[in-house]
Specification:
Helix content is 50%, strand content 20%. It is of the alpha+beta class. Strands 1, 2, 3, 4, 5, 6, 7 and 8 form an eight-stranded mixed beta sheet that branches. The longest helix has 41 residues. The radius of gyration is 22 Å and the shape is globular.
Length: 271
């Protein structure tokens, strides 16, 4: 018995110490992540510095680069209305009438705010979105990582609200002469994604300087279906998006320039 007890102790003691060590490391890692997130939420400097990584601008070239859906708003395009006229009928109807009719019928409103103000409601929208693609554990891990990244970034969030509940949100970042549609999540199937695309075009035309081009980058697509849908609205899928889009320049604080007042139809310039 004494021999067996000694062997059991010889096994349990190292395992206990290893468990405590791993727990300590995990706790320290979580504390560091929370602390970094808190710093980013309170510091514009760190928001902009961190944002380069999710944007794909602060890293070395990868061997395999995912194509992005990009659109150049050339100087000869006078307005969004004229651009919409160049699209096929179904795309025109979606951007000009279907979105607004759907929002009025359902009662969805849009509110804009800085990315640092992401809350628990936004997290659950991510989890609901990811749950349609993955199992619960993977969806939870994906939701945590995406929520952390988005809340550490600069940019503006358009929150889609129905009966006081957040049912979707889109994250927009502008750097240089390019607008990036960064993150998009929705709870259920609605016309929210189409509204986010129209908002990107609205902001792009509003921010474009006279005589110069401005780029709208909707990022990579989760599937071929989404990629084809973006092409329907005039976007091209390009692996050379870094060379095409003009990301040179400072970040633009959209929260102080172009935001939705609540109706979801018009963007207001805030002084």
């Amino acid at each position: 018995c004494l021999f067996r007890s000694s062997r059991l102790a010889f096994f349990l003691v190292p395992m206990t110490l290893l468990s405590l060590l791993l727990w300590g490391v995990a706790s320290a890692l979580v504390a560091a992540i929370v602390a970094f997130n808190t710093v980013c939420r309170r510091s514009e400097h760190w928001q902009k510095r961190f944002s380069r990584l999710p944007l794909g601008l602060g890293q070395q070239r990868r061997r395999r680069v995912r194509a992005h859906a990009i659109l150049e708003l050339r100087p000869e395009l006078p307005s969004l209305a004229e651009y919409v006229k160049s699209l096929k009928k179904s795309a025109r109807q979606t951007l000009t009438s279907q979105i607004d009719n759907s929002f009025v019928a359902s009662g969805i409103v849009v509110q804009s705010h800085p990315a640092s103000q992401l809350g628990l409601g936004h997290f659950w929208v991510i989890y609901s979105h990811e749950s349609r693609l993955y199992n619960r554990v993977r969806a939870l891990l994906a939701a945590i990582s995406r929520y952390f990244a988005a809340s550490c970034m600069t940019g503006v969030i358009d929150s889609y609200i129905l009966d006081g509940k957040i049912v979707g949100w889109a994250h927009t970042v502008v750097k240089g002469h390019t607008l990036r549609g960064m993150w998009f999540y929705q709870d259920g199937k609605r016309n929210i994604w189409f509204h986010a695309v129209r908002a990107a075009l609205q902001r792009g035309f509003a921010l474009r300087k006279p005589g110069a081009s401005f780029w709208v980058d909707l990022g990579p697509s989760a599937s071929g279906t989404v990629s084809a849908l973006k092409e329907k609205f005039g976007f091209d899928n390009a692996a050379e998006w870094r060379e095409c889009c003009d990301y040179d320049g400072d970040f633009v604080d959209l929260a102080d320039k172009l935001q939705f007042a609540g109706d979801g139809f018009t963007l207001e310039k805030v002084d």
